[in-house]
Write a structure and sequence with these properties.
The protein has 295 residues and is of the alpha/beta class. It is built from 9 helices and 13 strands. Helix 1 crosses helix 8, helix 3 crosses helix 4 and helix 8 runs antiparallel to helix 9.
């Protein structure tokens, strides 16, 4: 495949999860780009870090994982998320504000990347600040507008860092929406149709926003891919879970990679489910996938 205009980009937050046992590299865009690269496709993470040691360590880890990047250094601290575990073992998150990934600049280099992007994945969290939100929207404007272009909005509702305007704009900009069952309940309440079942809500969103695909993940209760007139369902495999960090990002990466490589919706869906199940059996968001999952 000719990769020059087939770049697949994850744009948004790059950060450290500060866990009781130490820090772990986090951020959906990096997870997404890493897993896409394992399918032999040309991927890149776009974000911003601070001029500090934590930022340097992010670059080192991405280099170790061979993740291509366009990450600017800005005059804000590298992002961190403080993770506290309560007595019941439930994690509580405090996502620091006014950090580097809130201030991703739109540059000539980034515009060049956008012009050769076939697929992009972006979320709602990185749009909490006007700077990064503007950069993401300008990136989408600069992307080629073709029937083959995939613009993936991966909803990630965290703390209070979202509003109806950002969600509406993002859904209008995307042609693939990925959302989980809990997020769908919140979005439906916000948009004024809370009293119908999850599948009907998905059909409404698919039609209202003229989407190519809507991906709904429901944890242990399986996942769905809605396309105009059709729905694919896959049960969630039963595996021994090490942790679920990055599983959703690996699902998105495997699904989009498979579609770009010419797989059917059903084939891409099955591969995404298998990949995310494997990631759940590993510690951390970026394990190496076995060849059987990437062929």
């Amino acid at each position: 495949m000719e990769n020059k205009k087939n770049l697949i980009v994850g744009i948004g937050e790059a950060l450290w999860d500060m866990l009781p046992e130490g820090k772990k590299l986090g951020g959906a865009p990096a997870n997404f780009a890493y897993h896409v690269s394992q399918f032999g496709l040309d991927s890149m993470v776009v974000s911003a870090i601070g001029r500090d040691q934590l930022g340097d360590e992010i670059i080192t880890q991405l280099n170790d994982k061979n993740v291509n990047r366009l990450i600017d250094k800005v005059a804000y601290p590298t992002g961190t998320v403080q993770v506290e575990i309560d007595q019941a073992g439930i994690p509580q998150y405090e996502i620091k504000e006014n950090v580097a990934w809130d201030n991703i600049p739109y540059t000539a280099a980034l515009e060049t990347v956008a012009e050769r992007t076939r697929a992009v994945c972006f979320g709602s969290l990185a749009q909490r600040s006007v700077v990064s939100r503007t950069t993401i929207n300008r990136f989408l404007d600069a992307m080629p507008q073709t029937d083959e272009s995939l613009v993936v909005f991966d909803v990630n509702l965290r703390q209070g860092f979202y509003n109806k305007e950002i969600l509406c704009n993002s859904m209008n900009r995307c042609n693939v929406l990925k959302i989980n069952d809990e997020e769908l309940v919140t979005v439906s309440r916000m948009f004024g149709y809370p009293g119908i079942d999850l599948q009907d809500k998905c059909w409404i969103l698919l039609g209202k926003y003229n989407l190519k695909m809507l991906i709904l993940t429901c944890g242990i209760n399986g996942s769905y891919v809605f396309t105009p007139g059709n729905v694919s369902f896959q049960p969630t495999p039963t595996v021994e879970v090490a942790d679920t960090v990055g599983a959703g990002d690996s699902f998105t990466a495997a699904f989009i990679s498979s579609i770009i490589k010419g797989k059917s919706i059903a084939e891409a869906h099955k591969r995404a489910v298998d990949v995310s199940a494997f990631v759940c059996t590993c510690n951390g968001a970026m394990p190496q996938l076995p060849p059987s999952l990437t062929d």
